[in-house]
Predict the 3D structure of the following.
Amino acid sequence: MITMKYCSNCGSTVSRKTPSDDNRERWVCDDCGIVHYQNPLIVVGCVAEQDGKVLLCKRAIEPRYGYWTVPAGFMELGETVAGGAARETLEEACATVELGHLFASVDVVDAGQVHLFYTGKLIGGYGVGEETLEAALFAEHEIPWDDIAFHSGRFALQKYFEDRGANNGVHVHELRRSAS
């Protein structure tokens, strides 16, 4: 939960209380009564393949600077989930992809995020985006597993290789601080 002090509508202070038509505490403005809902953020990504290898990016930003990741990032307003996955791949790895199917969903409960991953085929080349130190293609046995930035990316990679490109539905995983 993110702590709030002031209402984004009128600037007055907010308090935690349960609105009369709700079943849980929310931040509510003490003056204008606006309820400030806090909902999970959506992270979208793509495991892009070319010639049996997958594209990974070495992060040039925190968190996890210098670690490898599947191209992924926060979905933007006005785009579809698939559109966001393709955009993030283009931004982080300068790579255009032909998206396949949605194959992994990870609930990152403690961070208030949901991570969704698509399969994809790399169309043409790739490069280094602003948030990336290096981009490279890896066969499964070449992946630097100990240097993967996030548990959700590791999960997506593992399920991708388990499926070997087949559409076996969506693999769902939940991450909490007590789980790793």
About this structure: The two ends are 20 Å apart (CA to CA).
